[in-house]
Structures are given as C-alpha cells and as structure tokens.
Design a protein that fits this description.
It is built from 4 helices and no strands. It is mainly alpha-helical and 105 residues long. α2 (33-51) runs antiparallel to α3 (57-75).
Length: 105
C-alpha cells in the first residue's frame, strides 16, 4: 500500500468515526455510540482495502473483529460474540493465506 493511500485511509477513518458516532448518539438509543461507530467505520475501511486487494485489509479486519467481540460481550450478546470470534479466525486465516501467496515464487 502506498503511503499516500495509507494517509488517506487514516484521514477518512478520523472523519468517519466521529461523524458516525455523533449521528448514532443523536439518532439512536445506543448507550455506546462511539464504540458502535468504530467497527462500522473500520469495516468500511476494510472493505475499501479488500476491494483494492491490499494485504493491509486483513489487519484492519482483525482489529474490527476484536473491537466487535469486546462490544458485543459488553452488551451480553454471546452468540454474536461467537460469530465475531469466527470472523476473527477467518480474518487471521485470510491474512496468512495472502502472505503465503505473496511469498510464493
């Protein structure tokens, strides 16, 4: 990933997270709008990276899934926690598979 793209991605996240958090705070009854907004903004970033086939999409998905596991555990949504643990495992597996492909001759 080029440095310029990385800086743009961080900038987009820095704007999207607070905007989405403020929207959720005003428009919904969530008690954790900022934590709800973080995985949503991160998922948009991860999907953008994946669509461009940047290997950096995988650590973003790992981070999104870790935050989601914590968020849903806080909410007591245990089946959703299990689902996001599965997603976390899939992201780790995908990251490793892409690293292997990149290292192959």
């Amino acid at each position: 990933m080029r440095r310029r793209d990385f800086i743009a991605l961080i900038g987009a996240l820095a704007v999207a997270w607070p905007l989405l958090g403020a929207f959720l705070d005003q428009a919904t009854d969530t008690d954790v709008p900022w934590w709800d907004a973080l995985p949503t903004a991160g998922s948009l970033a991860g999907q953008w990276l994946l669509g461009r086939k940047y290997v950096e999409n995988w650590p973003v998905w790992v981070a999104v899934n870790l935050v989601s596991v914590g968020l849903f555990a806080w909410k007591g949504l245990w089946l959703t926690v299990l689902l996001y643990l599965l997603f976390l495992g899939m992201a780790l597996w995908g990251w490793r598979a892409w690293q292997r492909l990149a290292a192959a001759p």
